[in-house]
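Sequence design from tokenized structure. All designs in this work follow the same two-part layout: the structure record, then the generated sequence. An example of the structure record is given first.
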């Protein structure tokens, strides 16, 4: 029972940043746009072009992305066999930093 509760708490904590308020999302979108215009960040489409085809070949469906203006990290979200996979990508270099889930 305790393990189930801990797992539930862990899942809730992991999902929390993905549900930012509309104001937070707007400010992250503005920061991403500004970073692209100043040449500090790669365009989302360039990052997607590097990651999405590989994940699709592995049987995953692309769900969308989140952007963290504080770190400059894009988190691309995928679904495979009922499991969500998060791929963190450095928005400055396009390098995959980590992958978690499914």
């Amino acid at each position: 029972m305790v393990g189930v509760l801990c797992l539930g708490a862990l899942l809730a904590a992991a999902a929390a940043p993905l549900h930012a308020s509309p104001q937070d999302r707007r400010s992250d979108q503005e920061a991403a746009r500004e970073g692209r215009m100043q040449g500090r960040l790669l365009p989302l489409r360039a990052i997607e072009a590097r990651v999405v085809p590989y994940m699709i070949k592995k049987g995953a469906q692309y769900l969308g992305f989140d952007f963290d203006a504080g770190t400059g990290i894009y988190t691309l979200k995928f679904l495979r066999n009922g499991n969500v996979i998060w791929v963190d990508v450095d928005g400055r270099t396009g390098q995959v930093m980590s992958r978690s889930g499914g």
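Residues 48 and 82 are 21 Å apart (CA to CA). We note this feature because it recurs in several other targets discussed in the main text.
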